[in-house]
Every structure is written in structure tokens, then in C-alpha cells.
Amino acid sequence: MSERAAPFYCPYCGDEDLRPSEQNHGAWECAACSRAFQLKFLGLLARGVQRAETGGDRI
User: Fold this and answer.
1) 18 touches 27 (CB < 8 A)
2) Quick one: which of 58, 19, 49 has its CA closest to 36?
3) Which residues of 40-57 are buried (b: 16+ CB within 10 A; e: fewer)?
4) Of 7, 16, 17, 35, which alpha carbon lies 20 to 30 A from 47's?
5) Which pTM was predicted?
6) How far apart, in whole angstroms, are the C-alpha atoms of residue 41 and residue 36?
């Protein structure tokens, strides 16, 4: 299996200048806004994702 996927952009400012943090597994640092965040996979939903059927197209 390959390495885990990296985030494409910062969830706070949207910039793409991200670097892995040495503090925790799954932690990332954003050079643009100086924030650190951590990603964690929680698991799969047993029921899956349900979509509500509205019966009409939205524009």
C-alpha cells in the first residue's frame, strides 16, 4: 500500500504551501497563515451516505 494522501490546501486559508509537522502523525503546518492542523481518518460509515431525493433539478 502507498503512503497516505496529503492535503491539497489549508482548511483555514486555502493556501497550498503545506508541510508535514514533526509534532504528531497526520499533523501539517501552513506556511501562509502559520496554523497547524491534524488530519485523522475516523472510519467508514456502516450505512453509507444517503442522498435526499427532491424530485427536481436545482440550478
Assistant:
1) no
2) 19
3) eeeeeeeeeeeeeeeeee
4) 7
5) 0.64
6) 17
